[in-house]
From TrEMBL:
Belongs to the glutaminyl-peptide cyclotransferase family. The keyword Glycoprotein does not apply. InterPro entries: M28_QC, Peptidase_M28, QC/QCL. This is glutaminyl-peptide cyclotransferase. The keyword Coiled coil does not apply. Keywords: Acyltransferase, Membrane, Transferase, Transmembrane, Transmembrane helix. It is an enzyme of class 2 (transferase). Its EC number is 2.3.2.5. It catalyses: N-terminal L-glutaminyl-[peptide] = N-terminal 5-oxo-L-prolyl-[peptide] + NH4(+).
Amino acid sequence: MVLSRRNNPIILILIFIISLFITLSLYNIVLSSSSSSKRDNKAGVETKPDQTLKQWTKLNNDDLQRFNQTLKRILVPRVVDTPSHANVKNFIVNYLNNLEWTVEQDEFETNTPMGRKKFTNIVGTLNPQACKRIVLACHYDSKYFPDFDFLGATDSAVPCTMILELLRKLDPKLKQHKNQNDDITLQVIMFDGEEAFQRWTNDDSLYGSRHLAARLNSLSSRSNLCPRNVETELDRIQVLILLDLIGEASPRFCSYYSKTQKMFDHLSRIERKLNRFKLLETNRLSGTNYFSRCPFSTSEIEDDHIPFQKLGVNILHIISTPFPLNWHLEGDDGRNLHHPTINNLMKIFQIFILEELKLI
Ligand SMILES: *[C@@H]1O[C@H](CO)[C@@H](O)[C@H](O)[C@H]1NC(C)=O
Ligand SMILES: [Zn+2]
């Protein structure tokens, strides 16, 4: 076809851009399918998901409804030492009790810029006898703002809901693991008082995690099944996996510590596998990219892991960087959550925990 000179140049440019786009997309499809099949063949990896993988990445309507119900119970103002905070605390404690987990409440009082306050960390353990623990953690308090009711959906109602729903979804498998009396188990820590009452300082922040890390470090190990190098309750933590600022679209998580690089790579590998088998919800041709290689300069973020990290605990910090768009704003009230992303992360974490505990 020959284009006459009278054609509108804008249309010509548009046609050129569109055809360039189509060419590039086609090229991309060919490239990605050929490279993934090459990878499959070379590594001898299966080209179809097995039944186990399919089963544990399936979220049915019941699961999604339960997630919403649990989130609704937590997504309320829950400023430390208020009645609505106590409701959320009781909800979480009951939830863990109903799953037959052993629950401890680490209560303490301390001074804050807003006076003396009472805090409660919640610690749930699947099998208290097992020496070592893989800890899943979040903070359940919400930040106090004088001028509006802050709900903290990503901060951290969603991360806490994800943990609770993960335990429920995996419950049959976890009960099976508990009965095997392995030397490792799962523990959940829901921290209180992560947020500063005023401006974030060393004294005004991380109230719960500072208290609990110090306390566990001062208690000698209560398990008689531990090897000799495990002296304190803190030593029993194999890894602290802290979830924070999760729930908006397209998060990116970075690896901050070389000691947990392998675990981070495990998450990244699961994500790639689920993308390859089209088990994640995404519009992107290349799939999701949550667990990525981040710039070398990525610096550590102050959060509940810090008091533990300072005492030598292995840390996996799963926090969106950059922070969600509505971080510490009124908009972090649930309206801006992206449920496909939350579902995808649930699937990745479900497989991750099952594989780390060698349950599949
Ligand atoms: C859960 O809540 C979200 C946001 O309100 C909604 O879009 C979704 O349809 C709900 N899911 C179910 C299964 O009710
Ligand atoms: Zn916050």
